Amino acid sequence: MKKRTILLTGGGTAGHVSLNQAILPELQKLGFNVEYIGSKDGIESELIPETFPEVPYHAISSGKLRRYFSMKNFSDPFRVGAGLLQALSIIRKTKPEAIFSKGGFVSVPVAMAGKMLGVPVIIHESDVTPGLANKIAMPFANHIFTVFKETLKHVPAEKSTCTGSVIRSELMEGSAEIGKELCHFESDLPVLMIMGGSQGSAVVNEAIRSNLPALMEAYNVIHLCGKGNLDASLENLPNYCQFEYVTTELPHLLHMTDFVVSRAGSNSIFEFLALKKPMLLIPLSRQKSRGDQILNAQLFKQQGFAHVIEEEDLTPENFLSEMQKLHLDEDLLVENMTMAEPPKTSSEMAKLVIAHSKARYIKK
Ligand SMILES: CC(=O)N[C@H]1[C@@H](OP(=O)(O)OP(=O)(O)OC[C@H]2O[C@@H](n3ccc(=O)[nH]c3=O)[C@H](O)[C@@H]2O)O[C@H](CO)[C@@H](O)[C@@H]1O
């Protein structure tokens, strides 16, 4: 019997791909054929074929939907239109039971095409306030899942459920020993991981590198600095290890980490919470975003999971004093995180997706 198909979509940044990476193998275990619709050159076009070479990857045209003026605002609607035609053709061929959309601009024409062809569309929103792509796609959705319960105020309540976070299972299974081999640290100092989101952050990189001598006295530093941001002059330092972007290494690096400094993208911060890593968050500012990371970070601070410093308040001097405060608060932060609601497993999330698809029964 031919396997039933689930179509996944989402991309642009890893934050719009990582949940798809988590549930994809679980959907396969449940007996479904999984196919992916992504953009031609977004991060998903690398991550999905690399991790799941057996999964058909359909690249479609996508255009950015901007809230500001750009000459591309005139050409991008045509790209979105082309993406819609391509998505319609892929959906007609694959006849999916459901489309699961993790957001990002590429997902908008896919959700629209799903609605036009009567395929259930399920959207996932991981930030407190919905991103522009998800906002546009919401009318086409049959159901919306949110990570934060506060998000339910910003989405149509009658077709939305808060599921909490979902963590890729491999992140829970790292080995600190392998992490140590990857970094070649020579001392036993505590390990500080820096993550500037999936793309790296110039502001976070500057805060770290301008304080490197002081930081290296207190920590072994793992710096995930983003594509194109390696600094050749910092190679071969004994307590500093920089990577552009890590994939299979991440679980091991996380397991050897004692403290984290990070942007406040939803996926990252829930991963640190699940692994109980005391974190100092530097959310993306309102000048550069809709302020979603500020809200994510504030909710984590209110629950006692994180310390937060806003980008505008960050100076080389107060960064070091914030690190000292984080260190002093370590036990309390870990205690609070231990009491947090555990994340959903990828398998539970995959079953929720199926529960909202045409296929309402699952192979036992
Ligand atoms: C600039 C921007 O638009 N940022 C948004 C984007 O962030 P971004 O793409 O940075 O998303 P998140 O922080 O949510 O997730 C990043 C993901 O990348 C992974 N990772 C990161 C670095 C690395 O080297 N290897 C690796 O695997 C993390 O483990 C995590 O799973 O999506 C988030 C979720 O919608 C939003 O909250 C952010 O505001």
From TrEMBL:
Enzyme class: transferase
Positions that bind UDP-N-acetyl-alpha-D-glucosamine: T13, A14, G15, R168, S198, Q293
Signal peptide: none
InterPro entries: GlcNAc_MurG (IPR006009), Glyco_trans_28_C (IPR007235), GlycoTrans_28_N (IPR004276)
EC number(s) stated in the UniProt entry for this protein: 2.4.1.227
Pathway assigned in UniProt: Cell wall biogenesis; peptidoglycan biosynthesis
Domain Glycosyltransferase family 28 N-terminal: 6-145
Predominant location: membrane
Membrane topology label: Peripheral membrane protein
Chain coiled-coil ranges: none
MF-aspect GO terms: UDP-N-acetyl-D-glucosamine:N-acetylmuramoyl-L-alanyl-D-glutamyl-meso-2,6-diaminopimelyl-D-alanyl-D-alanine-diphosphoundecaprenol 4-beta-N-acetylglucosaminlytransferase activity; undecaprenyldiphospho-muramoylpentapeptide beta-N-acetylglucosaminyltransferase activity
UniProt superkingdom: Bacteria
Keywords: Cell cycle, Cell division, Cell membrane, Cell shape, Cell wall biogenesis/degradation, Glycosyltransferase, Membrane, Peptidoglycan synthesis, Transferase
Pfam families, alphabetized: Glyco_tran_28_C, Glyco_transf_28
Glycosyl transferase family 28 C-terminal domain segment(s): 191-340
Catalyzed chemical reaction(s): di-trans,octa-cis-undecaprenyl diphospho-N-acetyl-alpha-D-muramoyl-L-alanyl-D-glutamyl-meso-2,6-diaminopimeloyl-D-alanyl-D-alanine + UDP-N-acetyl-alpha-D-glucosamine = di-trans,octa-cis-undecaprenyl diphospho-[N-acetyl-alpha-D-glucosaminyl-(1->4)]-N-acetyl-alpha-D-muramoyl-L-alanyl-D-glutamyl-meso-2,6-diaminopimeloyl-D-alanyl-D-alanine + UDP + H(+)
GO biological process: carbohydrate metabolic process; cell division; cell wall organization; peptidoglycan biosynthetic process; regulation of cell shape
Annotated Gene Ontology cellular component terms: plasma membrane
CDD domains: GT28_MurG
Compartment(s) where it occurs, according to its Swiss-Prot or TrEMBL record: Cell membrane
Purpose of the protein: Cell wall formation. Catalyzes the transfer of a GlcNAc subunit on undecaprenyl-pyrophosphoryl-MurNAc-pentapeptide (lipid intermediate I) to form undecaprenyl-pyrophosphoryl-MurNAc-(pentapeptide)GlcNAc (lipid intermediate II).
Family of the protein in this entry: Belongs to the glycosyltransferase 28 family. MurG subfamily.
The protein's name in its UniProt record: UDP-N-acetylglucosamine--N-acetylmuramyl-(pentapeptide) pyrophosphoryl-undecaprenol N-acetylglucosamine transferase
